[in-house]
Amino acid sequence: MIITPPITSMKNAFSVAGKNVVVTGGNRGIGLGISRAFAECGANVAILCRNEQSGAEAARQLTEQFGGQHAFFKCDTSQRDSVRQAVEQVYKAYGHVDVLVNNAGIAGHISFMADTDMAVWNSILQTNLNGPANMIHAVGMRMKEAGRGGCIINISSIAGQSVAESREHPDPGYNASKAALDHFTRYLAVELGDWGIRVNVIAPGPTHSDLDVNLPKETIEKIENSMPMHRFGEPLEVGALCVFLASPAGCQITGVVIAHDGGMVLVG
Ligand code: NDP
Predict the structure, then answer these.
(1) Number of Cβ within a 10 Å radius of residue 144
(2) Catalytic residue at 187?
(3) Closest-lying ligand 1 atom to the alpha carbon of residue 210
(4) Residues with beta carbon inside 6 Å of ligand 1?
(5) Predicted TM-score (pTM) of this structure
(6) Span 107-136, pLDDT tens digits
(7) Taking CA 78 as the corner, what is the angle to CA 73 and CA 79, rounded to the nearest 5 degrees?
(8) Could you tell me the distance, in angstroms and rounded to a whole number, from the CA of residue 29 to the centre of ligand 1?
(9) If you measure from the C-alpha of residue 24 to the centroid of ligand 1, how many angstroms do you get, rounded to a whole number?
(10) What is the pLDDT of residue 166?
């Protein structure tokens, strides 16, 4: 059954105005850039994260700057019950969800053998892989029931494709979780296609966020020099790509992994 009709003109082809969008980790870093991009384009944004203060503050700022209906919902995406409760509240507030962006993620920085009780490994998989799975299960079920299609975007990483940095910065759980998220996305694109729900990945390369604020200047310069585009990406740029994927112009795109990395994966 065809739920998403093809576009017939460029009028509104890139519009997400009026759509209800859930962004996990939408309170800071790349997630805040994604929240801003959607809010500036006229969408309503539900921010799900653990930190109440920055979550509420981010929603308040979006409303002040762009208008629209933006709100914070406390949620630990790694915990299924927390996700169920938050999603219930989101549906009470918004009625339906058009777009889900699974952005929340963590890194570990410990080699596999040094992680003696595999606590880091388990915690990263729980957040970076089971977190999106929890969200997609809860929101995808309701998208199916609503019968109006949907767009799911998983934020992975070029670390899901490359292990170039592994000797200097080992993070095996991160590599594995992002690669698994890429392939889980391909699976979901097939299963959810019958309901007009598209599922894609954006795989960022080095991007300004809380993850890089403590990196020494020399390290940043070394990374930037190695990148074909010679600079880190910006959170709003990842947001712009999310807006494109969620807009009618993206209506035939599903099951793909789009690198947003200034060409880094080609040389890393
Ligand atoms: P930050 O550390 O700046 O932000 C992480 C975000 O995830 C925060 O909003 C945090 O909110 C949220 N979060 C973490 N754990 C949970 C949880 N269990 N439940 C709910 N929210 C959670 O990271 P970035 O902005 O840099 O990263 C965002 C995404 O982009 C991640 O998936 C990351 O892997 C990916 N990425 C980032 C790159 C970069 O260079 N920055 C490169 C490639 C990929 P709170 O603490 O309030 O819960």
Answers:
(1) 16
(2) no
(3) 3
(4) 24-25, 27-31, 49-51, 54, 75-78, 103-106, 127, 131, 155, 157, 204, 206-207, 209-212
(5) 0.98
(6) 999 999 999 999 999 999 999 999 999 999
(7) 75
(8) 7
(9) 9
(10) 86
pLDDT in tens, 217-241: 998 999 999 999 999 999 999 999 9
Q: Determine the CATH number of domain 20-267.
A: 3.40.50.720
Interatomic CA distance for residues 206 and 204, integer angstroms: 7
Identify which of 24, 28, 30, 52 to mutate to test ligand 1's pocket (most ligand atoms within 8 A of the CB).
30
Atom of ligand 1 nearest to the CA of 54: 47
Give the Cα separation of 98 and 60 in Å (integer).
21
Q: What is the DSSP string of 7-18?
A: P-SSTTTT--TT
Instruction: Determine how many CB atoms are found less than 10 A away from the CB of residue 214.
Output: 7
Give residue 81's pLDDT band: very low, low, confident or very high (50, 70, 90): very high
What is the predicted pLDDT for the residue at 201? 99
**Cβ contacts of 168 within 8 Å, gap of 6 or more:** none
d(CA 173, CA 159): 10
pLDDT of residue 210: 83
Protein residue closest via CA to atom 13 of ligand 1: 104
C-alpha span between 212 and 210 (Å, rounded): 6
Q: Report which protein residue has its CA nearest ligand 1's atom 8.
A: 25
For the chain, give the percent of residues with pLDDT over 90.
92
Please give the Cα distance from 249 to 62 (Å, whole number).
Answer: 25
Ligand 1: centre distance to CA 173 (Å): 15
Name, in order, each residue with C-beta under 8 angstroms of 151's C-beta and a sequence gap of 6 or more: 98, 99, 100, 197, 198, 200, 245, 246, 250
